[in-house]
Write a structure and sequence with these properties.
Blueprint: H1 2-32, H2 44-55, E1 62-69, H3 73-79, H4 81-98, E2 104-109, E3 112-118, H5 123-138, E4 141-143, E5 146-148, E6 152-159, H6 167-183, E7 194-195
């Protein structure tokens, strides 16, 4: 009957709306799982996924910049976590702006960030990228009447196109380079980075 057809159509429309709402909710949850809630940058999980895809694509040519803030802990200690969170949001926005063109830039956790570039980047290009990042991180951040100068150190690891290097190994080498930068006085990056080929230094 016509009445039955109308009821069936209404039920179908209701089921369709519920399905669409569920799909949107699931997509939202999926997106949230890959985004750092404080800075809205991709989180460690999202970064690692892109890194693994890039290094596992058969063309391992990429450059990884590991970034650690130098003087962030005193900001939290002196001004509290509210100010610290605001500083992280501002520095994240700067990192996003300065790393346009990267495969991904993200917050790995705490005061640690990373930027990944695909393709070959020669020493001059790597130096220019790292210098721009450091310059942005060194600029003072004003939160109300409070002015914070944080700065950062950077470790760089290069994945050569002819090397079979996992994302985990690339991150390990970038971490090592970052440790060396911290030991060299902070606010800097190694001019000769960790190369993929057996750990030899890049030209």
């Amino acid at each position: 009957s016509i009445q039955a057809l109308i009821i069936a159509a209404l039920r179908y429309r209701q089921m369709r709306r519920e399905h669409d709402r569920r799909v949107v909710a699931e997509q939202t949850m999926s997106n949230l799982a890959l985004v750092d809630s404080l800075t809205e940058l991709p989180n460690r999980r999202a970064f690692h996924r892109v890194l693994q895809n890039l290094t596992g694509s058969g063309n391992g040519s990429c450059v990884l910049f590991m970034i650690d803030l130098d003087r962030f802990k005193p900001v939290n200690d002196l001004h509290g976590h509210g100010v610290g969170d605001a500083v992280l949001r501002e520095l994240s926005a700067r990192l996003r702006q300065v790393s346009q063109g990267a495969a991904i830039s993200g917050r790995l956790g705490g005061d640690e960030f990373a930027v990944l570039y695909g393709g070959a980047q020669n020493l001059e290009m790597r130096t220019a990228i790292a210098t721009r990042i450091l310059a942005e991180m060194e600029k003072p951040v004003r939160i109300g009447s409070i002015v914070c100068t944080v700065g950062a150190s950077i470790g760089i690891a290069v994945g050569a196109p002819d090397a079979t290097l996992s994302g985990d190994e690339l991150m390990r080498r970038a971490d090592l380079a970052l440790y060396k930068a911290k030991g060299a006085g902070r606010g800097t990056f190694p001019r000769r980075d960790e190369r993929s080929a057996g750990g030899a230094q890049a030209p």
